[in-house]
Amino acid sequence: MLMRTRTVSLALGLVLVFAQDAIVVSQQARRLFAPEELGLLEGPDRDEWQKPEEVMDRLEIGEGARVADIGAGGGWFTIRLARRVTRSGVVYAEDIQQAMIDSIYRRVGREGLSNVRTILGTPGDPRLPPGLDAVLMVDTYPQIPDPVAVLRHIAAALAPNGKLGVVDFKPDGSGGPGPALEERVSADVVKRHAAAAGLALRSHETFLRYQYLLIFVRAEGEVKAGGLPPYFCLLPSAFCLVPSSVHATGSTFAAMAAFTMSIAMNGTKPVAIADVSVWPGRSESHDTPPAKITARPISMLANDVK
Known about the structure:
With 306 residues, the chain is of the alpha/beta class. The protein folds into 2 domains: 2-22 and 227-304, no CATH class; 38-218, 3-Layer(aba) Sandwich (Rossmann fold), CATH 3.40.50. The protein has helices at residues 2-28, 46-50, 52-58, 76-85, 98-111, 147-157, 187-196, 244-249, 253-266, 301-304, and strands spanning 66-70, 90-95, 116-120, 132-138, 158-169, 199-205, 211-218, 232-233, 239-243, 272-276, 293-297. It has a 7-stranded mixed sheet with strand order 3-2-1-4-5-7-6, with helices on both faces. Strands 8-9-10-11 form a 4-stranded mixed sheet. Helix 1 (2-28) runs parallel beside helix 9 (253-266) and helix 6 packs across helix 7 (187-196). The longest helix has 27 residues, at 2-28. The radius of gyration is 21 Å and the shape is globular. The relative contact order is 0.13. Mean pLDDT is 74; it is low at 3-30 and 226-306.
């Protein structure tokens, strides 16, 4: 009984962490960077404090690589990536604002670069091609309304040995450039989102004075974009899906965390948890349990924890 109580307490603690993350990111993602303010991103000392060459070195980006720049803005990092991969490589510059895409197109033309392709993404899907050697997300994370969804699409686009690099400002105010402290997202929050999206942390780089660089790779057994990872809630849905094998071992506490994260993100209290007898290959929402899935009352969750 004591063990069960401790396990449930740990699960509820994890639930609160995910709920807080969802609230923080939702509040921070309300404002996209305005195209007319691009000049603020390209100060003469940015090369010095952001160290783009070293960032690319840590991601092992070299000649012939296929890479993507997420939230590319005006293309400051895009053109540096394009020069690094040379004409034998390609850079996919993605942004969800057409004005930014237009700005990149003009910049690439001025620079005489022929290896840049622009992508107009959506807030939940950067629409990346598969088989990417590296994906870079610089000074973008706090503007993403649903980071787990975006990270899952990125994970699906990575080549088997591909890497994702997230560069953003430290939340401790270390002085220097960057947004207001309340507009920053900590490295720990990004790590939790990445884990939920099927990514594994390879390294947390600290060589940047004002920023962190997190490098992720695909975790073993990750799912494709649109599939369902273990303990994944169908959003916005009243059900959370968990493999039957998980219930067989009694390991339901992670499902409880995902289950309540659904509450935080949707504002709706789920009413059931479902065992997945046949693992679906796509993401759907259901008002009632779909075929071949057995609903379990939420009151049974605590009883499932052994």
